[in-house]
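Hey, does this match?
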Amino acid sequence: MTETGSAEVLRVTGQGAGRQATRLLHRAREARLVGEPSGVVPRAEIDASWDRVVRSGIDPDQSPESELLEADEIEHRRRSTALGELMPLLRTGLASIADAAQQIMVVTDAEGRVLWRQGNTGVLRRAHDICLEEGAAWAETATGTNAIGTALAARVPIQVHSAEHFIRALHGWTCAAAPVRDPRDGQLIGIVDISGPASTFHPATLALVDSVARLAEGEIRVRHLAEIERLRAVAAPILCRIGGRALAVDVHGRLAAVTGMPPVDRLPLPKSMRPGPVWLPSLGMCQVEPLPGGWLVQVDDVGTTSGAPRRVVLDLSRPRALAVHLTGPLGSVKQRLSPRHAELLYALAVHRQGRTASELARDIFGDATRTVTVRAEISRLRRHLAEVLAHRPYRFGDGVEVEVIQPEHGADLLPHSRAPVVAEARRAASTVVAEARRAARTT
């Protein structure tokens, strides 16, 4: 299938287009790989994806294989996502159809890691050959243009067919994927995908996958409202008897009831929330008590800084268990970190004097212009670490003690990171080791 654009460019789509369009797509991609102009280009979504993949350095001849997550890490991620509760709905809405159509349903987390697969037995066996299995990485940066990774990158539903895949090993496949967002805050929580041999392509598959993804979002919303109503019924009589500022929130910090203060949509909570006195960045010192399905938070307006954390331990010793520990007079709070947030905190630990957004962009991406991304990630970090992170410039606050726990071998620091600030630390560690070995050989 081809379309003629206004600039006399032949736009090619691989969707059921036959051998001629497949040859044209191959020609378009080969031109892109060598940086030559071409009168043949893929449709806009694939064109943009190819650009991203070329910049990331993906080899079109590489294998789609990736290092699989360990079984316990897969199980942890399953328990940590709302998608786990939706699997019965997804199986009913997609898996049975996929099986009948000789395809498989694949569900990933927000990083593109496969958490569940189900569908046609024969296709599941074939999927093993391209590493489309539980624990595998299917982000664009790992596997090039594909429906899962490209839906993650573009945040829109997309179908990728045959030669539209960047890696040649995937040209025998067709896939359609749609993002699933948490309707409570709009955050992406995962991807729902149907994949199968290229011969199983059907133009209605994308609409089906997108409809089921929207159905999943609606189910999350319905369940959340029911949980909030139950919590409000318990909390309302308690709040009526309390003087001062107080609020009831669910385990994710979303508001159910409030008294003595303006309502908020969400109260950032530490992941290791516990009863008793707790320092919360947006409220200061609070007294916290458990409620069925949430927490009762009473604001202590006296001495609101006495329990503020003054020590930060950034634990980077295990790549799959990155964490930061905040320690103060009232004990310690642990927050798990994404690899990107670990990179940012490491950069701030290295540069205690502080970094501007452009300096951090250079530290993390090697590109000083990516300040928008840096500011967005720092904003997410400050939801839980505002009490120890300052800004203008970004830095750890004055008087905050910072310790970084590195791997046993410094060259193993954040091994999958491409951030220049991390890569430089690994190179320095490797140099020290090499010099020590040379010195040992000469003595």
About this structure: The CA atoms of residues 34 and 219 lie 47 Å apart. Residues 205-240 form the longest helix (36 residues). Residues 2-10 have pLDDT under 50 and may be disordered. The two ends are 71 Å apart (CA to CA).
